[in-house]
Amino acid sequence: MQHTVLTGDRPTGPLHLGHYFGSLANRVRLQDRFPMYVLVADYQVITDRDLPGEIQRNITELLLDYLAVGLDPAKVTIFQHSAVPELNQLMLPFLSLVTVSELSRNPTVKDEIAHSSQKAVSGLMFTYPVHQAADILFCKGTLVPVGKDQLPHLEVTRTIARRFNERYGRVFPVPEAMLGERPLLQGLDGGKMSKSRGNAIALSATEDETAALIRKARTDSERLITYDEENRPQVANLLMIASLCLGRPPAELAAEIGYGGAAALKRLTTDAVNDFLRPIRKRRNEHGEAEVREILAEGNRRARERAVVTLDEVRVAMGF
Ligand code: TRP
């Protein structure tokens, strides 16, 4: 099967381990096999805040994260919403294909509203999953490597593709999600690991910052360490983080720690994470601002070329 891969991130802060195991690792693997687009979702930043904030800084950092984990701009088209008007225009016909009640049932949107600092919910918060359909369908993406929290959005995209094809004739493929090794890592406070919630281990954090974050992680007072996701979610989460970094089963690590308690668990996890991230952090320092700006300019040009073709097809199919 010939796939086109599309995925993306909001430039709101540094990428973290949850992104790595949820999606980035898959991207790096897929870039050698399929054409791939990676979106810097800059317009999606203003879904849960009033202002884009340090957007240029965040975009640079995001590109450095991409290069650090091994995305290769010679193989991958890296681009941004705000540079591709034809992608954004697809949102308009797509909005006509979903109902208000479908939009208001989206569990990920509900969770984001609950954690937003805004006083009121903007129209963009409700409709950005439709914008995300434009992200995926502008290049006729068929495979979308994402974390589990993105599955409701992917359902919206699939619905839009199907309905467009039913109403206007077949234009779009119906894309599939590709879940990472570990669909959803928890944050160190027990909530969703999130760059804006201060509970995540950033790929770009220093070894000391990493150690401090893990030291603060919530655990329980049981000395015997066991892997029990149901009853000891926080301990299990640390074990899972260590397990992913070491490539060893979490129960085996638990058995090794035995009666060492939370302190030994945290020591092991800290070492595992820092060892794992060391080469990634090193590679990050080998790239600079001017280089990432060039990569983005070239990606934007390529993405726009693709978007123009799809928007034309859409207009013709709809009879405009
Ligand atoms: N919503 C995604 C996130 O918060 C980012 C994103 C934007 C995305 N557009 C996308 C992911 C398209 C996959 C496909 O992580």
From TrEMBL:
Protein name, as recorded: Tryptophan--tRNA ligase
InterPro entries: aa-tRNA-synth_I_CS, aa-tRNA-synth_Ic, Rossmann-like_a/b/a_fold, Trp-tRNA-ligase, Trp-tRNA_synthetase
Pfam families: tRNA-synt_1b (PF00579)
One function term, GO molecular function aspect: tryptophan-tRNA ligase activity
EC number(s) on file: 6.1.1.2
Keyword Iron-sulfur: no
Lineage, opening ranks: Bacteria, Bacillati, Actinomycetota, Actinomycetes, Streptosporangiales
SUPFAM superfamilies assigned to the protein according to its UniProt record, in alphabetical order: Nucleotidylyl transferase
Gene it is expressed from: trpS
Annotated Gene3D superfamilies: HUPs (3.40.50.620), Tyrosyl-Transfer RNA Synthetase (1.10.240.10)
Native species: Nonomuraea ferruginea
Record key words, sorted: Aminoacyl-tRNA synthetase, ATP-binding, Ligase, Nucleotide-binding, Protein biosynthesis
Family: Belongs to the class-I aminoacyl-tRNA synthetase family.
